[in-house]
Amino acid sequence: MTDQEAAALGAAALAEVKPGTVVGLGTGQAATAFIHALGKAVKERLRVTGVPTSDASADLARQLGIPLIEQPVSLDVAVDGADEVDPQLNLVKGFGGALVREKIVAAAARKFIVLVGEEKLVKVLGARGRLPVEVVPFAVPFVTRRLTELGYPPVLRPKGGKPWVTDNGNLLLDATVTTIPDAAALDRTLLDIPGVVGTGLFVGIAQLVIVWQAGQARTLTRP
Q: Which of 9, 87, 157, 168 has the maximal Cβ count within 10 Å?
């Protein structure tokens, strides 16, 4: 997805934001485009409050003059991207490293909107071959062994020659996957492993997906 296409999706999502609402601000290319669109609207006197899902999104929102609260309780709408979207609007997220905060914000929102390019639509989750899992540092060797035993051998995600540290102070394992026929069951299985903080499986959370397809923004709703 080009930056221009992402900007068009961000503008489409802005139509879902009403004055006085609390808005979840996602992380990644599409979410960044939405934050820019929201910042422009705030300069034009739209009254909103943002809840960022990462330090990067918080920094950008502050630069654009969007008022923030740091810890969500209840949100009106959240807007984010995704790495995979299946026909039931279940998602794989977390390639950008903010999966746990993204899931908290999405779950706290009355409406969760996802912005993606057409290339992110898949028939079955797992098509891109990896599933992010956030893990307490102390538990990484143990969780690595358990994931391998389950058939999902992971690699520790690097960043700048060192392990990727999330905004929560945890580490990221990218589990090797093929297709995931039952995402809800796999999510529960992985969350049962001590030390796992969260997974990139977002099941039954997204109400609306806006996808850039054939030169225009197309809206998908959950079946």
A: 9
Long-range contacts at 36-40 (CB < 8 A, ≥ 24 apart)? 36/7, 36/10, 36/60, 36/64, 37/7, 37/10, 37/11, 37/13, 38/10, 38/14, 38/64, 38/66, 39/63, 39/64, 39/65, 39/66, 40/64
Q: Give all strands of the β-sheet with 130-135 in edge-to-edge order.
A: 154-156, 171-176, 130-135, 196-199
Task: State the CATH class of domain 3-118+203-221.
Answer: alpha beta
* pLDDT range class, residue 72, cuts 50, 70, 90: confident
Whether 76 has a pLDDT exceeding 90, the answer reads yes
What mean pLDDT do residues 179-208 have? 97
Domain 130-195 has CATH 3.30.70.260: yes
φ, ψ at 123 (rounded to 5°): -75, -40
Question: Which residues are identified as catalytic?
Answer: 102
Over range 123-149, report the average pLDDT.
Answer: 98
Residue 158's pLDDT is: 97
Tokens of 41: 């609207």
Domain range annotation of the chain: 3-118+203-221, 130-195
